[in-house]
Here is the input.
Amino acid sequence: MKKILLVLSTAVMVALAAPAFAGAKQDAVMDHYKKLAKGSFSASRGKAFFGATHTGGKPATPSCTSCHTKSPANTGHTRANKPIAPMAFSKSPDRFGELKKVEKWFGRNCRSVLGRECTVQEKGDFLAFMFSQ
Amino acid sequence: MKKTLVMTAMIAAMALTPANTWSKNRGVKDELTKTECGACHMVFQPRFLPAVSWTNIMSDLGNHFGEDATLDEETRIKIEAYLVKKARKKEFKKVIDGKQPIRITEIRWFKREHRREVSKRAMKRAGTMSNCVACHKGAERGQYDDD
Here is the structure.
């Protein structure tokens, strides 16, 4: 009985603790970008990029904040008004764990907002900002 | 005589069936389509639009109603095939700029159905007419007559 309780409480503790760290899957995604980058990534540069108004993209989406709101901790909305779970990793701990999915959305949203692909630096800074939130 | 009766019955049955048999509409079951086409809005049922509309939508995903919704080619082809297979069988009589509509919200029956009965409050909550689920709770299951 005691043993079961111990196992259970350990499981609960692990479950509670998990979201505080970027998981192994997220590390693998970050490593992919780190390998491609020249320098290191910066959360504060990522923050500036996230909040900036860009030109060259599609008129309805000049900024990341057009859909994600000013704070990544908030629930956002698509242009069709469907809710978007927060980008902040502390709020959505299952985000950024699959490279193919991350690349799909960087592709779409960078073209929509900036009218071009994002650079490795921009992607890494963006992720660093989200993991810090 | 018998023939006339059968004919009359058939015509009556046709008149009673709505032109767009949306009551028969069901939710989308294809997982790939559900994931990819349900990311930004509800998964619209393919029965709302004829095949050519879906082909046109799927060949211009880089420019999807003012947004980039590009898919990798393998996924794109699979989803297009599904949508075309399940599409509305008949094309619309009324074309838009010489083409079949690509918006459900621009189809004539849709406009007629929503012209008067939509309140300002409901519209504000929905944000856009494309947001079917805001007003029709059963929309993703293909149910639009539950309210």
About this structure: Residues 124 and 136 of chain B are 14 Å apart (CA to CA). Residues 26-141 of chain B form one domain. Helices of chain B lie at 2-16, 31-37, 51-58, 73-85, 108-115, 120-126, 132-135.
